[in-house]
Amino acid sequence: MFQTSRNLSSYRLLYMIRGTCFRTYTNAAPLNTTLTNSTIPRPRRAVKAPISITEAAAQQINRLMSKNKESVGIKLGVKRKGCNGLSYTMDYSSEKPKFFEEVDEKGVKVFIDPKALMYVVGTTMDYIENEISSEFTFNNPNAKSKCGCGESFNV
């Protein structure tokens, strides 16, 4: 029913430890202190876009989007398929999907699926056209291997 002094001091110690843990995660300065250099918010560095788009890819996306007037950008994702595990998917997007990462580069908006983001960080998107075919290509530094046809990759 009643706590002994030992249990009470354990409770106080636990409270002090927990209180300290919570205080380390807060950014607010206490009300009775002045701001110092360590508590003044610093400007954030610019975050690099998860993918980069070449000029050829941007021109082709603009050509494709001019044919589909209701689209505002392209959705980029990955799907488990192919002989090597993952394959890129692209589709028109009539609005920015919720939680998707937006890359606005060279006048083109690409919305990256949050599930695909960790697989495509650092990727360069390009468009190649030759006598036999024309296709979007992805130079992904995270890919450990690709299949022979280049359709799928593995990370």
Automatic annotation (TrEMBL):
Pfam families: Fe-S_biosyn (PF01521). GO terms for molecular function: 2 iron, 2 sulfur cluster binding. Residues 51-151 form the Core domain. GO terms for cellular component: mitochondrion. GO terms for biological process: iron-sulfur cluster assembly. Gene3D superfamilies: HesB-like domain (2.60.300.12). Belongs to the HesB/IscA family. This is Iron-sulfur cluster assembly 1, mitochondrial. It comes from Acrasis kona.
